[in-house]
Amino acid sequence: MRHVVLLMPDVYPESLLSRSPEVVFIFHTVGFILSGLAIAVLAWLAWRTGRRRAWLERLSPFVLLAASYGVGAWGSLRGLFEPAASGGPFFFVTSAFLETAALAALAHAVLGRRRGWIMWLAPLFELAGLAAGQPLVHPIAVIALTGLAVTGIVRAHRHELRYEWVGLLLIGLAHLPMALIPASFSVILWSGVAALRLLGVASLALSIERRSEDLFVQVFVRLNLTFIFLAGIVMLLASHAERSRRMDFAGREVEDLAEFIRGHVMYYLQEGSPVEDVLGSSLILREVVAEFGHSPDLRMVRVRVRDDELRVRIDDEGMIEQELVVGVRGETSPPASSAFIVADVPIYLDDEPVGQVVLEETAQSVNRDMAQSILFIFLAFTSAVTIASAIIGAIVHEASETIRQQVQKIEHSERRLMQAAKLASIGELVSGVAHEINNPLGVIVSRVEYLHEEAADSQVQEELAKDLQVIGTQAHRIGRIVRDLLDFARPHPLDVRAVEVDAILKSVRSLVEARLRQSGVTLETDIPEHLPAVRGDPDRLEQVLINLINNATDAMPEGGTICVRAGKIAEHVRLSVSDTGIGIEEDDLERIFDPFYSKKEGEGTGLGLSVSYGIIRDHRGEIWAESTPGAGSTFHILLPIAERDEGYEA
After folding, report:
1. Percent of the chain having pLDDT more than 70?
2. What is the model's pTM?
């Protein structure tokens, strides 16, 4: 007993990467989602960063790429539902032209306007070629465009734009076989070309995260690229398994018909019946007609015995045609372009092959079922990518924010350590220098005072008396500077206790009230009730606040408002001293706590904030400043809350 030989379709060979509509759809879908990923990341960067124009220039190429892949995906999906439309020129031409325009836009964005404008000649050339009916114009335009773009990028920005020129190179190489051997565009070659194009798009997407300094973007892009490619492979495997299952089922459906016809023919041939009578039997025609009604994709049954062949076919309108051809020579003719051989059963007589039964089907119902399946897979795939992207984005964003905060804390700690080391080294230097200056300064002051008294008694010239007075004033000023230096350099033990912030502010107000009134400055306070006491030395904290209020007053020569606020933050109390003065430039903010740094020309020693910084540091607190030039400054002080068993200073 011979067995039926079931064949997979020649239209869509049994291959995971066959050029079937669903495989084409999957490749275009992956490209569409890759482009969508790039669009989403570029939109995020344009929104979050200050380089909005630079990121938006990169957006248009990926929008065009997404449109190109979207048109291709729609065309291949339409081919599943309507096989006659699967090779329609509109979708191919539109998708190809959009791809060329996307590559031209990208090259223009990368190379700049001065050198990138020439890239737009490629889509114009393609339009002219398509109008002239030249099908090879698209790969030629893409190869020329990518070649020029890669050359320009490598010469100008080889290392900075590595992913850009690699992506363009891969896309250009993908189109090379299309231009060189279009007539032999085999299945394996097509799949390789499609894969190269996707790798090129992935490289272009990676170029975005390489140009971004945002850790969230870098991790988000890489994780999503991996997930998209894995999901695409899963889609290919699922669609291949589904088509194989459906094609196998289609072959099994017609197996009984093939066996019946072969058995009927072999029986009557062995009985000696003429071949014409055997092939013209009404039993064969009745079974074939019944099978046409049972298997909607069955299109032709051919029964050949020696040189005679019976052909029974049904058209799309259900009309059945029977034809008996006598004197057939050569091999059995191949099926129509839209059909495939689902069964090829040999007929034997006395163990010698004398003919065959061939059944041909189309893939219309299989394609319709595959279209429904692929839509379900696509929706599941898109939903999975969207949900995974949201989850990945949330996780990565949270991790990025945590890392950013940790980095800020580390940088802040480093700045505090550097400031402390700077203060310590300067303090040692200042202590020695101040002592060396103080001794001769005392001699100068005492002699000037003596000469001034002598000048007053002896009635010397008035100008000489004035000069002596000036020398004395400046000597006393030098003395004050030396005392400030020694105060800065010498470590002072703190009389630490629990201190009420409101009590400190009342004491400070009484000390600065006169100067504030003369300067036209108003002092406002905002201290909440039941604010915890802080752990500190009241005299030293008063010194810090007086210094900050005096600096704020100096910053408002035309008068203004100083506001002192306080509030509890975790285990600390934060004091804020704000003014409506001229503000501090951003470059100066980093140096205001450095010793001897002052913007007051001819006034002060530049030690006030340095001393304040040291006092707050000794209290295990923090002090920092925020300012907007022209809108005032705010100094923040963070002090630890006092323990319950510490004595209170009210």
Report:
1. 71
2. 0.55
